[in-house]
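Re: the pair you flagged

First of the two:
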Amino acid sequence: MLASLVGGMNGSLEILGAVPALALADPAPPQIDSGSTAWMLMSSAMVLLMVPGLALFYGGMVRRKNVLTTMLHSFVAMAVIGLQWVLVGYCLAFGASVGGVIGWTPDYIAFKGIDPTALYGDKHVPELVFAMFQGKFAIITPALIAGAVAERISFRSYVLFIVLWSTFVYCPLAHWVWASDGWLYKLGVLDFAGGTVVHIASGVSALVLVLLVGNRRDYPDGAIMPNSLVLTLTGAGLLWFGWFGFNAGSAVAVESPVAGSSAVLAFTTTQTAAAAAALVWMLLEWRHTGKPTSLGVASGIVAGLVAITPAAGHVKPAWAIVIGAVGSLVCYLAVQLKARHRKDDSLDAFGVHGVGGMWGALATGIFCFTPALGLLNGGGLRQFWLQLLGVAVTIGFAAVMTFIIGSIVQATLGLRVTDAQERDGLDITIHGERGYHL
């Protein structure tokens, strides 16, 4: 009797259409994942802390008369690019793709159309959180370039240069590599956290800017001594700390097993590569000069962090040791070659970020195991060739565009300070201040 009653009820429901109505009901809207959102907020803050870290790292390596100007190159990027990113940068980098080349979503301009409750893709984090996280990358990248032309670039020209460079170099590259409709992304080029977009682009651009600006007035024959390696070591420590947000935060979310494991893997490989690179640089220098130096250890730390950046979420920790160690070796050799070619990359922006980024991007194609298989994981040469394409495109685009932008700034404002300003120091002649009153 009960069975008959249930059968009758089911039949009635089918007749009334109740079952299909339930089946076709709209699914619950996606919800913000509090854990992922908290992690992204923390990662964004950690990446921003890298900018003062870079200021200390670079500021300690220049002469006392230029310490404030050098540090200001990083701090002013927080102000200038911080606004440029909100006004137009995010739109160009992550807006709806126009032919896979550039983004354009008018509602993204000044974030005017981004609802605070709107989520980014399928990551269950607010889009504003993602936009702010990516904005920190946009800030630090042009600041890296400043290290190559420290102690001689005009401050006003630098400000104009980074606005133009971020708009016409960084944003298109970010769209190509990271936007889901970007043409390099669709081809399958891997860059977990910025090997091409951040490090190769800034390193190559730094070298081009050196060629445009020229060497310092007393390079290479004069004595150019760092004013405080204590500042440089402190900056290296802050960079190492912030890099965990830089790399592990690039997983974007931690709410799913895939995203969570990717973040954990990136965190682990970041630590492993940096440690290996610092040790290798110290040993190389010890063998080469007879003395292990604090500057060498600091340089090794950054070289390892740069090298692992594009591969952080794609390789296993054992291979991260190799990537960091080899990255330290190639960057060390690049820095040594600088003196032979007599090009004044003042703080080794190209030698560390450019060369380290190239190695890391190519190493991704050799050692990656997810989402594609690299050469040593049975994937053949396909991913390596894709990585090589990404490296070549980034080098060519960054070099040509930097030359054009640098030439425009040179023709309008002039890139270099006067000989008297360079001789007396940029702190007092441009800013009317001194870093130290001793």
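Second of the two:
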Amino acid sequence: MRIPTMWRLAALGATAGLLASGAGAQVIAITGGTVYPVSGPRIENGTVLIRDGRIVAVGADVAVPADARRIDARGKWVTPGFINSATTLGLAEAGSPQFSGGYNDVSARGEKGIAAAFDAWRGINPASTLFAPARQEGVTSVLVAPGGGMIGGRAAVIDLVEAATADAMVRKAPTAMVGSFADPSSGETNARAEFWARWRTLLDDVKAYQARRAAYESGNTRTLAASRADLEALIPVVSGQLPLVLTVDRSSDILAALAFAAEYKLKLWIAGGAEAWMVADRIAAAGVPVLTGAMNNIPGSFDALGQRQENAAMLRAAGVTVVLVGNGPGDPESYNVRNIRQEAGNAVAYGMSWDDALRAITLTPAEVLGVAGQVGSLAPGRDANVVVWSGDPFEFESVAEEVFVRGRTFTTLSRQQQLLQRYLTLPPAYTRP
């Protein structure tokens, strides 16, 4: 197994030189690499010029200022930083409080499965040890989303910068309202029809609350289906301003979700979508994006009996907007957020074009999440979330040699690097068994 250059040098004590933050370097020029802007064609022997954390020029004939810090990318690939749109980064670590003293702030208690007013990003731990390994594998932005219940709460886009507060990491909040159809036969409902009836009652009550706020505040309305805070949080959803991302797998449930969104004029995203390929034409016609992965073809429930690894490719071929997220093993939403490039590589292996796969973890999620004017491509005016790869990022042996987030690199070692550093050189008194 090839050990990434940064790991080997860190283990030898050269970490400071390799992982310098570059705080004093205001101009950075990445030169000579094969540049993949995503928003435009590939550029051979290209240059990406960064000034004060922003990209100011991309091309084959870019003038490099004399005072620029140069990064020689000859023989290397340069891409935008990857975006993982389904994570719980910073919300949980080491399981739950009863296990190893860890914490889990992924889900709110809510009321009867509704926690619309729960802003998941406000509980982010900026010191989480899970940020560094994700960043070092080329992930520079993520959607941090809540889970649990019929409505889990609101999600936000964050950048994987080192910061003292969660607010300093946030790029866009709120980004979407998160709901789930993962198991309609448990909790507050016992059947699919009851689940959709409850959604209709809830959204009708949101509209009633919006129209009669004064009467509600004076106690002159009937009891509504949710708390005041949750009703307020859902107003942007019913007005079509805030997207509703709904986890749903079965093809018939996807069709029901599309019909429900059309009825209430909602801006819908489908997450999971194990059987989405079966109704790809209907999804494409509705203009609904699908957030799905390509590393799993084993059904986790009867809802996902049609799970297949060609799902993303088949959806894309039908004209669906596809955002690749983790659906592989080993907690892809937390510990293995970094595996998003393997998801993309597998999508290519199962029929998706390489260009579409790169777009599905860069510019497409940026467009869906509403941050394409800032990240997701290498273009002048964008924030400098840029990665220099040793080779094709979808190949297992390739490594991210330089990762810039908002034009900066970071010094924090991942837990994996710390362990390598600790055990690469055994103590003198150690005796092999």
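The CA atoms of residues 132 and 414 lie 5 Å apart.

-B.
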